Amino acid sequence: MPARIPAAKDDRRDHVGGQLEVGVNDTCEVVINHPKLDLDENGCGYFVFSPNQARRLSLLLKRKADEADEQYWEQRKGNADQNR
Questions:
Q1: Which residue has the higher pLDDT, 15 or 82?
Q2: What is the pLDDT of residues 61-83, one digit of tens each?
Q3: 47 Cβ partners below 8 Å, 6+ apart?
Q4: Which three-class secondary structure state does DSSP give residue 17?
Q5: Under DSSP, is residue 66 helix (H, G, I), strand (E, B) or coil?
Q6: C-alpha angle 76/69/2, rounded to 5°?
Q7: According to the model, what pLDDT value does residue 69 have?
Q8: Which pLDDT score is estimated for 10?
């Protein structure tokens, strides 16, 4: 299940709106999804974070990376056990 980072409202610098979804896909990769990303005139989307939001995102990304690693090694172990 993806984890969400809501826009914080406790700090004046944390006024950036929207939310990101961070999860792990079936191939053990960390995925960041923004369901309503607005594109600029060049078709590019941007993520803008306050310092506090960036810190929270980095912690969430580390947790999801650890989860992805764990799933990867469980899958490899399962495949090795099946090949015996």
A1: 82
A2: 999 999 999 999 999 888 888 77
A3: 20, 34
A4: coil
A5: helix
A6: 120
A7: 95
A8: 46
Contact of 20 with 4, CB cutoff 8 Å: yes
**Cα distance between residue 63 and residue 39, in whole Å:** 29
Strand 30-33, strand 3-6: pairing: unpaired
| Whole-angstrom distance, CA of residue 77 vs CA of residue 27 | 15
For 70, residues 6+ apart whose C-beta sits below 8 A from its C-beta are: none
How far is Cα 67 from Cα 33, in angstroms, rounded to an integer?
Answer: 17
**Token pair recorded at residue 16:** 């950036």
- 19-34: per-residue pLDDT in tens? 788 889 999 999 888 8
